[in-house]
Amino acid sequence: MREDKIIARIARALAEGDAVEGLIRTLSATDLQSLMLRVYRERSARRTPAELLEQYQQRAMVRPRSVEVRTLLEVERAAFGQAHAFEAVDLAPVAPLGINSVLGQIDQNNCLATIRSAEVLADPTTSQALECARRRKAGDRETIRLCARSKQLRLQPFDKPGFSPHFTIFSLVTAGRDRGSLTFELESLREHLSVYLALLRHLGSLGFHFASVDIAVSDTADDEGRLARAQAEVLAPLAAEYPEALLRIDRTREQGRHYYSGLCLRLDAVNHEGQRVNLADGGFTNWTQRLLSNAKERLLVSGIGIELIVLFFRSSVQGR
Prior knowledge:
Strand order of the largest sheet: 1-4-5-10-9-8-6-7
Number of strands: 10
Strand content: 15-25%
CATH topology of the largest domain: BirA Bifunctional Protein, domain 2
Number of helices: 12
Order of helices and strands: HHHHHEEHEHEEHEHEEEHEHH
CATH superfamily of the largest domain: Bira Bifunctional Protein, Domain 2
CATH class of the largest domain: Alpha Beta
């Protein structure tokens, strides 16, 4: 059998030196895939129904999320409705292996790798960055605006009530070329924040309750010039349009300094019980610059936890 010959050849190659190093460096991607396919086919054939049920009971990553799905769909529709300037895309459930480690410097152990050189979606914005880079490389010279609703899986420990290894977020990305004078950056930042503010205002009319909304803009390089421009050209106009929200500059932020590059945003909201929840986060990255080897490329990514909105801000919908 051809497969047996392939496995035998791989076994001989691994026997010649350190097996772990062989798996990491010696085997080609095709040979490693052939080996792992054989291993998991054999292991899965030996599993029992009792083992399946035990894993299902013990691992939250394989069980349903405790969220009211019909309400979640209502929030998703509202999000797409407010992001009318963005093209809606349906992301694949998997991405190229290493995408979040290479682009976002995320520990690979926090992502679920497959045996086919892919990994389960852990961050929709890295996948959207690849799509933007593909389009830019194909000759798209216009600003690319994408939005998506996605379910992703992350494997780091979650010990906060309401949080789960898999969850739904709504994300935005804007990709284009530097136009000078921070024009692209400030326009894109204002556009992303406008979508989120309009969404929360609209949800308020549907019975969701946000006791307060706090938007903070920071800069990973602590660039006072960029922050001053963001205050004058982004935050001040939005504050006039959305007086129910606090929009401010935050010079104390440390989170995401190795993930973002330049201006970044954070949106927190307080519910009727006084709980403060981080709903949205985002910022500029160098991902398309690196993917296209072009320092003139610009990319703003952000996402809002629409599942968290359902879990923490729908009390009046439930009649409590």
